[in-house]
Amino acid sequence: MPRLKCGVDTCAYWHDKYCIREGIRVKGEKALAVAETRCSSYRPRSRTARNSFHLEIGKLGDPLHLEVSCEAVNCIFNRREICHAQEIKIDGTRARKSAETFCSSFVLK
Ligand code: SF4
Ligand code: SF4
Question: What separation in Å is there between the alpha carbon of 57 and the centre of ligand 2?
Fold first, then answer.
């Protein structure tokens, strides 16, 4: 499981540079570059989401290491649609939807 940092502060699951989910799904089946990937687990921040986030963070033992399933099979860290990088970064500072996020750690095979 990679250690994951996230710069998408508009996401309901974002907290202080980290993602508080137990796992995420990255898309980009045909991606040949960073910009063609995206975090499909992104959800826009709302009052409801913020409340559930407070409940969720208390339940997690280590919010820094996440299970990352990934469709970007052209990335060197992808093995059978699971990310095996030690560390990854999801970005998209002003994202309002999943398509405006991306995995900065994508490296073309
Ligand atoms: S954009 Fe993805 S990695 Fe970042 S906080 Fe949201 S769900 Fe987690
Ligand atoms: S580093 Fe590569 S395999 Fe890992 S999530 Fe990003 S695009 Fe997918």
Answer: 24
Nearest CA to ligand 2 atom 7: 106
Cα separations in angstroms, 58 against 21, 33, 53, 96, 109:
11, 35, 9, 26, 38
Cβ neighbours of residue 80 closer than 8 Å, sequence gap 6 or more = none
* φ, ψ (nearest 5 deg) of residue 40: -80, -5
Sequential pLDDT tens for the chain (109 residues): 899 999 999 999 999 899 999 899 999 999 999 999 999 999 998 755 554 555 455 445 455 789 999 999 999 999 999 999 999 999 998 899 999 999 999 999 9
Q: For atom 2 of ligand 2, which residue has the closest CA?
A: 106
Tell me the whole-structure pTM to 2 decimals: 0.88
